[in-house]
Design brief:
Helices cover 41% and strands 19% of the residues. It contains five helices and four strands.
Length: 129
């Protein structure tokens, strides 16, 4: 057992895994191992890796900042300001109306993006408890 890196489109993940004699392991084996470790499907692992690459990109960070500024750091669902949210231990995020993975051509389109607080994003938009 040793530390193994999985590199995927500028993303590197290190996990404990058995390596072959040359210290190599296929990407599929690593995805499978990560899926087993996390208790999720290999497809879900690939989607999570894809999301991490997208949301940590410089292009997304710049785009998100532009949307926050456009919306004046106000949740577009409940109207709360950033200052108020931070005081309550909350924060703002930029939400895709249409998923960047389902509709990649709209991933950076301003009309597909809006500023939401984390409460509205989770409870109002995605209806998660």
């Amino acid at each position: 057992m040793g530390l193994v890196s999985l590199e995927m489109e500028d993303l590197e993940i290190e996990i404990e895994a058995d390596q072959d004699q040359d210290g190599d392991q296929s990407r599929n084996e690593l995805v499978t191992l990560l899926a087993q470790t996390e208790g999720i499907s290999p497809m879900a692992v690939c989607r999570l890796l894809q999301a991490k690459v997208f949301y940590y990109s410089a292009q997304w960070k710049l785009c998100a900042l532009e949307i926050l500024e456009r919306d004046r750091y106000v949740c577009q669902h409940c109207g709360r300001f950033l200052r108020e949210l931070v005081a309550q231990g909350s924060y703002l995020m930029v939400h895709h109306i249409h998923s960047p993975f389902a509709m990649p051509e709209r991933a950076f389109e301003p009309t597909n993006l809006l500023t939401l607080c984390n409460c509205c994003h989770i409870n109002g938009i995605h209806d998660k408890p």
